[in-house]
Write a structure and sequence with these properties.
With 480 residues, the chain is an all-alpha fold. It has 24 helices and no strands. Helices cover 73% and strands 0% of the residues.
Length: 480
């Protein structure tokens, strides 16, 4: 007669075979409850959670306390992490077991100690954050745990907590989360992680600002924070990527330079290396949006590299392809959805290029005149044409204003009677002596000054009048 295997042995065999046993294959509910302590102490708690997830609702209800005790008493961080992932990945099990499991997770965070328990507490906090993305009550409980984070927490726990708090800020926008990160900067082991997350917040805020001063100030703040991370850890690829992103975006906005394409190519290598690094392990699902954003950035920057090469040319050989790329950059805040400030950063350079170069403006005009040219970017092209026309008009107005500004240096001379009297005395022979006369008396000098001022004004205003009539330059001064 064959001896029946214990529940723990059955779980171990299933791991070797790569299978998940059923509740009945484990011997049923009574057998499982008899081996409660062995299951909790075993390295197969995650397998048991997966097994329970496939059971009936009745089985799940009967074994719920065992699972909750497992999360409360587990001593192996990887087992706890994998069990938490198995629980979170099963929506049916979450619906049944959530209240008790949340309580167990909160107790693990609140009762955190140093060593391996600190890492378990970090995994518990991560699990709570994932649950809080779906449930408002859990979110409030998680925020209270965030508020209880201390600068003297175990360094390993504080590192993980800083990353979770940073991601939570981007999800919820709670400004108090930034204050928590500032607090965690005082923890020597977590300082890098906290600084990185503060840099991500500053960068995100800059990308959503509306004022250019605020945009540039935010980007410089973010860059300084990322650089501080690199000073402490020179191989932090994520911080190096962010510094490169900021430098490239600001460089394009300022007009680009000879090394622009090289920097974009270098960033591509950094991103590839970083994604290979992340791919070594299983990236948490709650970090996936951040990884996706890096892919979006790479798509945008490849376009930037092409546009940077083309935007300063007089015309384009492959005008249709280049125009669509330019319009994608011009409308970058919607093209990639990274931030509304991208338009403020990129639009001035693009608009200026169309104002300066008649060939580019002609391309834009020709495409819009062609009714069969109907890409998704056509409305953007129409907006660009309107902005270019407005900037061109503003440019002429600005130049006319400069040329019609009464020449401040000359005005200063004309308004200085003492200086004018000296001029008239030295050049009295050059001025006609009319019936009204220009005597050498002080009163005559004043009259002379007024006459000179009137005569010079008569020379100035007819000229400027010919320039500024109805706000448009005449043919005579069109070259100005």
């Amino acid at each position: 007669m064959a001896t029946e295997m214990s529940v723990s042995t059955t779980l171990e065999v299933s791991v070797v075979n790569g299978t998940i046993p059923s509740i009945s294959e484990l011997g049923g509910i009574d057998a499982i409850l008899r081996e409660r302590d062995a299951i909790i102490d075993s390295p197969f708690l995650d397998v048991f959670v997966e097994c329970l997830g496939r059971g009936s609702m009745q089985d799940q209800s009967a074994l719920l306390d065992l699972v909750a005790d497992g999360f409360l008493e587990a001593q192996k961080p990887t087992v706890f992490r994998d069990a938490a992932n198995a629980f979170l990945d099963n929506s049916e099990l979450r619906a049944v077991a959530c209240p008790k499991l949340i309580k167990a997770l909160i107790l693990r965070v609140e009762g955190r100690q140093s060593g391996s328990d600190a890492l378990i507490a970090a995994y518990a906090l991560e699990a709570l954050f994932r649950l809080s993305l779906e449930d408002r009550r859990t979110k409030l409980q998680t925020l209270l745990l965030f508020d209880g984070l201390k600068s003297d927490d175990d360094g390993l726990f504080a590192q993980h907590a800083a990353r979770i708090v940073g991601v939570a800020y981007h999800q919820w926008g709670d400004t108090q989360l930034r204050d928590i990160l500032v607090r965690l900067q005082a923890n020597d082991e977590a300082a890098d992680e906290a600084a990185f997350e503060l840099g991500m917040i500053a960068f995100a805020n800059a990308l959503n600002a509306t004022d250019m001063v605020e945009i540039e100030t935010g980007m410089q703040e973010a860059r300084a924070l990322f650089r501080s991370v690199l000073r402490r850890d020179a191989i932090r690829l994520d911080a190096e990527v962010q510094v490169a992103l900021i430098d490239i975006v600001l460089s394009f906005s300022a007009g680009g330079d000879e090394g622009f394409s090289v920097r974009v190519a270098k960033l591509g290598c950094l991103l590839a290396e970083r994604h290979d690094q992340v791919g070594i392990g299983r990236a948490p699902c709650w970090l996936k949006p951040r990884m996706d954003r890096e892919v979006e950035w790479w798509s945008l920057l490849r376009l930037l590299r092409s546009v940077n090469d083309d935007i300063d040319r007089e015309s384009w050989r492959y005008a249709g392809k280049v125009m669509e790329q330019v319009l994608a950059i011009y409308d970058a805040e919607y093209t990639v959805g990274i931030g509304s400030a991208l338009h403020s950063l990129f639009a001035p350079r693009i608009e200026a290029a169309f104002v300066r170069r008649k060939g580019l403006a002609a391309h834009l005009h020709d495409f819009l005149e062609d009714e069969e040219w109907t890409p998704a970017e056509r409305p953007v092209a129409q907006l660009l044409r309107e902005r270019v026309a407005k900037r061109a008009e503003e440019g002429f107005s600005a130049r006319i204003a400069d040329e019609d500004g009464t020449f401040p240096a000359l005005s200063a001379v004309l308004e200085n009677r003492e200086l004018l009297s000296q001029v008239s005395a030295k050049n009295s022979k050059l001025w006609p002596q009319s019936g009204r006369g220009l005597s050498t008396s002080f009163a005559s000098e004043q009259a002379n000054a007024s006459a000179m001022s009137s005569k010079c004004s008569g020379l100035i205003f007819p000229m400027t009048g010919s320039i500024s009539r109805r706000g448009r330059p005449t043919n005579r001064f069109g070259s100005l």
